Each structure stands twice: as structure tokens, then as C-alpha cells.
Amino acid sequence: MTFQENEAQKKQLNIAGNIKEVFEKYMNDFNMDIPENDHRASAIAIHEVMQKTLDILKKEIDKGTYDQF
Questions:
Q1: What are the pLDDT digits (tens) for 44-69?
Q2: Which residues of 30-50 are buried (b: 16+ CB within 10 A; e: fewer)?
Q3: Domains of the chain: which residue ranges?
Q4: Which residues have C-beta within 8 Å of that of residue 39, sequence separation ≥ 6?
Q5: Would you state the torsion angle of the CA atoms of residues 51, 28, 43, 66, taken in this order, to the nearest 10 degrees?
Q6: What is the tens place of the pLDDT at every residue in 2-20?
């Protein structure tokens, strides 16, 4: 295991908590902004946007955007 993999593994719970916090923040926003909100539909839509964002980040990593961060 590389030093980077080891560090990422140590921080996994922190990262997961941060992601869940962002997700729940947007769930709350949807609840306030959409009358009679469909919670499941909101959760699916938010997840899809978050996944697209992670996919964009992966492409940036593959392009070398963060090689000299």
C-alpha cells in the first residue's frame, strides 16, 4: 500500500462524513424550496449531480490537473 493509499484509508470516515453532510444539506434545501417534496426523487437527483461532479473530478485527475497541486 502506498503512503497516499494509507492516508486516504485513514481519512475515509472523514471524507464520507463530509460527503454525507453536503448531501443532507441539499436534501434540506430541496425540502425548503419544493412544496410537497418527493424525498426519494430529490435524493436520486442530488446523488446523480454529485456523481457527475465526481466523474468530472476523475477526468481532471486523469488529465493531470492535480499533478502539481
A1: 999 999 999 999 999 999 999 999 99
A2: beeeeeeeeeeebeeebeeee
A3: 3-63
A4: 27, 31
A5: 10
A6: 999 999 999 999 999 999 9
